[in-house]
Design a protein that fits this description.
8 strands, binds uridine 5'-triphosphate, 9 helices, 227 residues, eight-stranded mixed beta sheet
Length: 227
């Protein structure tokens, strides 16, 4: 049975836009796919994590302390997703990738958040994909693909329909990375995917049709990262 790891951003789970309705529809979309694929879901923290991290930064907490707060929020989101999935999910939030692997159960989704300070849940998704030998990584995020620049800030940004791992790495390997940054994919995650030749599908996580196509390895509106 093919294994699929989905990195689902906090910006998809709890943006504050009919989140309960979205999560119900998400569960309905996932239900038939659980029989065909072993699905692992890594939940992000989104703006709620960033809120705590910003307040903590104002209180001069260290980067690992800020990361720990981010991790707590990702696990709270994982817990919410487990409730939304009900009997479709293993009812424990895995706290590291080995535990996630061990919790694998036919027909059920394994859900987790962050693990340790120093990276984001995209990197966790890439590490988990390597551990379970997933056929692809899906990044369900707040943008509908990888762009040449942030499409929310730059109207001339162009979307890639396909790109290589080297192109993705070049795109995300910019700037200073501390607790709470938001990017199209985590730099470490992009590096792990490149080293292990794992395809990444970057799609709008709220577009359930595109998310489903990505899980099934069909053509997507978003970006496919592959060599
Ligand atoms: P996210 O994975 O949500 O990061 O983790 P992000 O890039 O800010 O989120 P999206 O993709 O825009 O939704 C939130 C924060 O939690 C900490 C980091 O500080 C991260 O920025 N974190 C998360 C860790 O330190 N380790 C982890 O394994 C996961």
């Amino acid at each position: 049975m093919d294994k699929i790891v989905i990195s689902l951003g906090g910006s998809v789970i709890v943006p504050g836009d009919n989140d309960d309705v979205f999560l119900k529809h998400f569960a309905e979309m996932i239900a038939p796919l659980c029989e065909q694929y072993q699905i692992y879901l890594v939940c992000g923290g989104g703006k709620i994590a960033r809120y705590y991290i910003n307040v903590g930064r104002g209180l001069e907490l260290s980067e690992p302390e800020l990361d720990d707060m981010g991790i707590m929020v990702t696990r709270m989101n994982a817990n919410l997703v487990i409730h939304a999935l009900g009997s479709l999910a293993v009812d424990t939030v895995a706290t590291d990738i080995l535990e996630a692997h061990h919790l694998s159960q036919r027909g059920k989704v394994v859900v987790m958040g962050g693990t340790v300070p120093g990276h984001t849940t995209d990197a966790v998704a890439a590490m988990l994909a390597k551990e379970v030998k997933a056929v692809r990584i899906i990044n369900g995020t707040s943008v509908d693909g990888a762009y040449t620049a942030d499409p929310k800030k730059d109207p001339n940004a162009e979307r890639f329909s396909r790109m290589t791992h080297t192109q993705l790495y070049a795109l995300v390997n910019v700037g200073i990375h501390g607790a709470g940054p938001s990017n199209v994919f985590d730099r470490l995650g992009a590096q792990i995917a490149r080293e292990n030749q794992m395809d990444i599908y970057i799609v709008d996580g709220r577009d359930l049709d595109d998310l489903k196509n990505a899980i099934e390895g069909r053509p997507v509106k978003g970006t496919v990262v592959s060599d």
